[in-house]
């Protein structure tokens, strides 16, 4: 993925991914309720996402459509995390996740299943 999205832009994208195509006003209303952003802030971020090619907007009503899937962004962000923090080693990231005391037995079992499925 060539598009680099900042955390603030990801908040806009998350609304689109969660709710599907919607108006800029609706995105603004959701983000105002969730994190207190005003309309100008949200509209500026939507325009940035449009400029980067992450969102397509159309009339009427400044309708917004996500051009990149969430999974693609998750994969790119995960790869960046692995490269930046774990020296490019996915097993170090996995070990860090397993070493967390906050994981429930169910979460640990899910991680084990992921490993089994990838073998």
Question: Can you tag this structure with a few keywords?
Answer:
119 residues, mainly alpha, 6 helices
What can you see in these coordinates?
This protein has 119 residues and is mostly helical. It has helices spanning 7-19, 24-35, 39-52, 70-85, 90-99, 105-118; strands at residues 22-23, 55-58, 63-66. The protein contains six helices and three strands; from the N terminus they run H-E-H-H-E-E-H-H-H. Strands 1-3-2 form a three-stranded antiparallel beta sheet. A hairpin with a 4-residue loop joins strand 2 and strand 3 (63-66). The radius of gyration is 18 Å and the shape is elongated.
Strand order of the largest sheet: 1-3-2
Largest sheet: 3 strands, antiparallel
Number of DSSP E strands: 3
Give me the strand/helix succession: HEHHEEHHH
End-to-end distance, in Å? 26 Å
The average pLDDT score comes to 91
Shape: elongated
